[in-house]
Amino acid sequence: MRRYGLYVDGQWTPAGSGKTFEVYNPATGDVVGEVADASKEDVLRAVDAAHRAFPGWAAKTAKERSEILRRAYDLMVANLDELAVIMTTEQGKPLAEAKGEIQYAADFVLWYSEEAKRVYGETIPASFPHKRILVLRQPVGVVAAITPWNFPAAMITRKIAPALAAGCTVIVKPAKQTPLTACRLVEIFEEAGMPPGVVNLITGSRAAEIADTMLADERVRKITFTGSTEVGKQLMRKAADTVKHISLELGGHAPFLVFEDADIDAAAREVAASKFRNAGQTCVCTNRVYVHESIAEPFAEALAKRAASMKVGNGLEEGVVIGPLIDRQAAEKVEEHVRDAVQKGARVVTGGHRLSRAGTKGEVHFFEPTVLLDVSDDMLVLYEETFGPVAPVQTFRDDEEAVRKANDTRYGLAAYLFTRDLSRAVRVAESLEYGIVGINDGLPSVAQAPFGGFKESGLGREGGRHGIEEFLEIKYVSLALV
Questions:
Q1: Where's the Aldehyde dehydrogenase domain (predicted)?
Q2: Which CATH architecture has domain 254-446?
Q3: Which residue of 35, 273, 323, 375 has the fewest CB atoms within a 10 Å radius of its CB?
């Protein structure tokens, strides 16, 4: 049982109202934590602190900021096992996955500890002999980072590590389902020597009130958000009132194209790795599987065999591969998608059932890893994001049809393809309207590469050298020699 307050201006404090809310283990229903429930006044205190701390943090040398981030990385790695247990306990993903996420999250801190020293300016040839043109890159200011429950560590560090490296101060608002990982991370940043006010943490059950307060405050110069497309659009509209910088990593509906020359077992392995990670609760996981008609049956059998072998249960138990869905609403949505598909003619190759179990605070919700065949375009699974462990398989006849089907969505975050033909791989990758394309690779995300989407999957990029640019302003200085 962990208890945390808000972290504002270098101090852990209760919410002004004294209110708290409980955090539950989605695999058992047990209460595993209690955190402060922030109000508008608490958010304004955090903005005050971040605004005061900004000039001092921005004025530090890149080397100084780099050294603090490097210490934070070392501490994350040293505390990896503890952080992973916290994450599994509040989020549900299997412990091995949680350990992988903590390392991935730490990788962003390491990358940007190094990238802090590579924020370069420019000189441009002037039009007159007595002038010089300089271009400076300077931090945007106070950044509000709003993060989701499905990756409680990586989505925080992917945002705040580049912001801090650039010289910005930050306010973190984690999802109400998974605040404990965020709290422990902030403790680590504190231990690493982060000055007061540079990193602030606001936990709360009223997400809209907290977001609206930060959006309305002109001192907050950037919003960075990962979550649903619907909420992202609302943030985008409200950010316009104060013309804030905004980065949005939103929903996805990733296709996975399996061509006739593919190694069927290898393709099934990559689809399973992409689709069933975190019980299908990821924005880049495979949502639609398009397989050449000549190999559809053997591929579905190979994928189903892998799915059927996956143990479902509490992520802290040995051998568990599929953890719980986050809540009842998530389970009901997955169940609805499978029911709709079956009613419209889909065939369940394996799985297909919701596994609700008694928890200490009511039912907890699991779902069998599921493979559907004979899927048609009118089924919910082919045009809504399921966010669960369901792999719908549809066939195609040729490359053109596969690309057309893959691009027939308002989303454009991640797409995958499996083929041995290099020319086809290049042609198809260039034709896919997605920000991330994995060729024979179902898990392409790394700290040093840009992550982000096309169309309604978002704006901006996180990760790599591109990620730090999102937190920098460009200043043009014209100097006349007198």
A1: 12-477
A2: 3-Layer(aba) Sandwich (3.40)
A3: 273
